[in-house]
Amino acid sequence: MSTSNCTRCGKPRIIIDTYEEKIETSTVTYTITECSDPECQKQVNKTLEQEETKRKFIKKEQEKREELRKQAIEDKKKRKLKED
Ligand SMILES: [Zn+2]
Q1: Distance 65 CA to ligand 1 centre (A)
Q2: What is the Å distance from ligand 1's center to 45 Cα?
């Protein structure tokens, strides 16, 4: 099994955990790796956190828009019912 290098600093990544997941008939092994440089990993985690925050914000905005869209459709329906 080959280990990859850190995309940030190029140092080899170390496997900190592995777990198996059964998907239908086959078992897939997942490996969780971390940079061998703890300082670099800290930065990676920070970036991941920032991305997660950004993702959550975008998702919330999308949900809001979707809610407004649904509301608009409902309003249209209601108006149509009144007209008929
Ligand atoms: Zn690194």
Answers
A1: 38
A2: 11
Write the pLDDT tens digit of every residue in 3-31.
689 999 999 999 999 999 999 999 999 99
pLDDT tens figures, 45-72? 999 999 999 999 999 999 999 999 999 9
The SS3 call for residue 61 is helix
1 alpha carbon – ligand 1 mean position (Å): 20
Helix or strand or coil: residue 30? strand
If DSSP codes are grouped into helix, strand and coil, which group holds residue 23? strand
Ligand 1 centroid – CA 17 distance (Å)? 17
Amino acid letter at 43?
Q
Does the pTM surpass 0.70? The reply is no
Amino acid of residue 40: C
Q: What is the 27 CA–ligand 1 centroid distance (Å)?
A: 29
